[in-house]
Specification:
With about 190 residues, the chain is mainly alpha-helical. It folds into two domains: about 120 residues; about 60 residues, no CATH class. The protein contains five helices and two strands, in the order αααααββ. Helix 1 crosses helix 5, helix 3 packs antiparallel against helix 4 and helix 4 runs antiparallel to helix 5.
């Protein structure tokens, strides 16, 4: 459930950047005017819009979340520094606090993606353990089948009827619900 909440949160934060970047690209001249008015060099409107749009799309898609979250957090911190630094103005203060909240959300996206990469490593390790256990069970079953075949051949060579073995319950992995052994048979002596 926490993974679903993290994905939803990541998409909601990404929407801010997607819409902001698309808005900047839709009205490049107004964006350029705003950037120059802040004392920054001209020609940054298109790169800024593309960065926000592509960063937001990557964040929403879950592509390179840690790197994108760091870059977008740095970008958002720079917007506070260059555009919303007049804390005396109530509107600028609200915008600065909004950007700080966005940085907090990006920090959570960064941290949560790290947690899930550890989860995936643990899951990979668990799958490896299950595969090794399945291989051991298959080896044991092969040895049992070989022993049964040898006993059957010995019984037939001595003129006795061949021993009979019957299947019994399949043992399953409690956590996974998968059979540990596809067919386990019990061999009865006559």
């Amino acid at each position: 459930m926490s993974k679903i909440a993290a994905i939803i949160g990541r998409i909601l934060i990404a929407l801010i950047f997607i819409f902001s970047g698309a808005g900047k690209l839709a009205d490049i001249s107004a964006t350029e005017t705003m950037i120059v008015a802040a004392g920054l060099p001209g020609g940054l409107a298109i790169p800024t819009g593309l960065f926000e749009l592509l960063g937001g799309l990557c964040l929403a898609a879950g592509f390179m979340v840690r790197l994108v979250a760091l870059l977008l957090a740095g970008f958002t911190a720079l917007t506070v520094l260059f555009f919303h630094h007049q804390i005396g103005d109530p509107m600028q203060r609200i915008m600065a606090l909004k950007n700080l909240a966005i940085i907090g959300g990006l920090a959570l996206a960064f941290a949560h993606s790290q947690m899930w990469s550890h989860y995936y490593a643990i899951a990979r390790e668990r799958r490896g353990e299950l595969a090794a256990r399945d291989a051991d069970v298959r080896i044991r079953d092969a040895e049992l089948r070989a022993a049964r075949a040898e006993a059957r051949a010995d019984a037939l060579a001595q003129g006795h009827p061949a021993p009979v073995y019957e299947p019994h319950a399949v043992v399953t992995d409690a956590g996974e619900g998968r059979p540990l052994v596809s067919r386990r048979r019990r061999w009865f002596d006559w």
